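@channel sequence for tomorrow's demo:
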Amino acid sequence: MKKACTVLCALTLLAGTAAAGDLAWGARVGYTHGDNLDQFHFGGHMIVQHLTTNLHVIPSLEIGVGDGTLVALNGDLVYEFTELATAKWGFYAGGGPVLTYYTNDVFDSTDFALNLLAGTTFDVGATKELMAEVRIGLEDAPILKLTLGLTFF
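C-alpha cells (generated this afternoon):
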C-alpha cells in the first residue's frame, strides 16, 4: 500500500508540473486535528488549471506546529463545480495522496495516506481569490484540516 501511495503521489505531482500551462500559486493557514494532535498549520499551494475544463491538480505543502511538527505534502485532484458557481463564488471537491512526516520529543513517523476535501472560493479581484477548505484524512492522515488561503493568478 505504501509503494502504491508513493507512486500515486509522485505521478500526481509530475502531472501537475508537466501540464503547467496556466499556473496559480497561493498561501494557506489553518487548523489540523488528529489522534492526540492539535496544530496550527501554514504552507503553500500551486494550481495547475485546465487539465480539463473543471479538473485541476493542486499540489500543496503544509507545516503543522503545536503538538509536535507535521509536514504534509498533498497531491490533490480537484473537480470545480462550475454549474454551482456564481459571479464571485466557486465550489470544488476532490482528494488525493498525502505524504506526512510527524515528529515530537519522543516519536517520529513517515506515512502515506489519502485525503478527501471540499472547498469554496471567492473572487476578490482579477488576480486573486480567497479559499476555504475542509480536508478529511483517511488511513494515517490527520482526521480533519480546516484551511483558509489566498490564491494569486
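heads up for whoever presents: DSSP finds one helix and eight strands in the chain.
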